[in-house]
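Changelog-linked ticket: magnesium ion example.
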Amino acid sequence: MENQKEAFNIGAVVAVRGSVVDIHFDAHLPPIYSLLHAKEGKVAIEVLAQLGAHSVRGIALTPTEGLARGNSVEDTGGELKAPVGKRILSRMFDVFGNAIDRLPAPAGVQWRNVHRSPPPLTQRSTKSEIFETGIKAIDVLVPLERGGKGGLFGGAGVGKTVLLTEMIHNMIEHQKGVSIFCGIGERCREGEELYRDMKAAGVLPNMVMVFGQMNEPPGSRFRVGHAALTMAEYFRDDEHRDVLFLVDNIFRFIQAGMEVSGLLGQMPSRLGYQPTMGTELSGLEERIANTDTGAITSIQAVYVPADDLTDPAAVHTFSHLSTSIVLSRKRASQGLFPAIDLLQSSSKMATPGIVGQEHYLLAQEIRRTLAQYEDLKDIISMLGLEQLAPEDRNVVARARRLERFLTQPFFATEQFSGIKGKLVSLKDSLDGCKRILRDEFKDYPEGALYMIGAIDEAKEKFQPGKPAAKSDSGAKPGVKADAKPAADSKSGAKADATSAADSKPDAKADAKPAAESKPGAKPDETSAADSKPGAKADAKPAAESKPDAKADAKPAADCKLGAKADAKPAAESKPGPKPEPQSNPAPEPEVAHAAAGAHDS
Ligand SMILES: Nc1ncnc2c1ncn2[C@@H]1O[C@H](COP(=O)(O)OP(=O)(O)OP(=O)(O)O)[C@@H](O)[C@H]1O
Ligand SMILES: [Mg+2]
């Protein structure tokens, strides 16, 4: 390019304001999106406006340190380009296509403009197919579309990155095509960790990573998505391969646009967003499309400012997606991970024509149950669970079990949760939900369903449940009805108590094995607490011995009338529960769970 310097026109810097640079050209005015170089290529500027016959205004894609009025600027005669070709696989790039993985620049690549138009309507393909993720809550209620766009919406720290990483882990190995990860405006550390993880998992040979993280100037964050998409389009159009296009975080693209717009002096629109937000976002999103030759499936994390889903950035993004997964802070605080708000999330795939009649009806029933529980929460908090009609209590029991079953241990969080990650097939997920709705697990402690994979693991976790179940069926209906609601109203642990309470003799037997069977597991605690009619008595020893116990103790304290009713008889009935001490070695998840229950109630 340096040799060609003379051939192109040279301008001079007139003004520099942060990332915005005005440049005067005597001869030829460079067109919009032209890439200009200053300071021997150290500063790159993209032209975004023509101010008059001889001057342009551009946004720098690099820091502008050292740039001064009068510096010469050369017009490269082209736009920003990204490298494409087979050789870019397994590599990591910045917005300019420079390799940033400490390896030499890839040889034998082509360079393409990053500004391209979306494929015309006539070339688009319209078939709809489900993309399984192995994550229960998503596959059952908000299935992703193969060749569609899915968004993970959430405020700060509710688990977007963790969920996205988990999806990459689950999908990338089964994905025959190529995966492209684009990091926009997030932490550099996360990019580096992902690179190492992918390398360790051996999936790097079919992956490309492109980063414009939060330390980079707004121009770079604004264009890095285009660069990554250009690579994705190459694999779709030239190599006819399917592409998985992952973005963390698309909101940062909008935010970079807002910064650029502000720097350019444009009048802001609602809440300070740029007036051109819709155009900019659709310019990017519409390029993520399926053609007859290949599909680009995209999953994007979307930061939601102040957890406000009516924020213009979130609203605009919603409209582009076929699946919107909303993460809720409340569920995250209850320890119900993945913290998906099952009622707010939606998928265009969840129709009988695509997922099938059976799956559709089941999903509807799950939603109905959860929605009813949501409606009942107010009454429960005012009057207590025991004031509900028996049918409503059943709904509550089912909903709480469903909520817990739809949590899942992630591979991505193995290191800090200490629980092994689980991948669950759609069939197993549906089967589990169906059986919970049929009340097959109503005598299981709620904790037995927490952080498991397929539903049969609940049986392994809570073997004693079997006898309890039996005895239940034999038990007096009146007693049961009472005991349960009370149990529900308390934390999960108490809920367990229900079953125990029902069947006293069994209960003891139950509790023990449970406690033994899993040291770390929630269920132990639960079952112990439950099983003893002496739920109370149980809780105490726990409290003494372990901090977890607090979680237990609390719910009891929190719980309303119903709870008390429960606890008492229990306390009276059984003084000395031995199994407790064993059950104590409960890990965090338990605590979280119990806490969750407490909140709920
Ligand atoms: N599935 C999960 N299991 C256990 N813990 C989780 C899970 N998901 C999220 N967390 C917890 O929440 C924390 C934040 O998650 P994450 O970094 O994914 O949030 P984020 O939404 O990407 O936040 P940000 O907007 O700041 O990027 C994690 O460090 C972890 O402690
Ligand atoms: Mg994140």
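Closing comment: Example verified and attached. Residues 357-383 form the longest helix (27 residues). The first strand starts at residue 10 and ends at 17.
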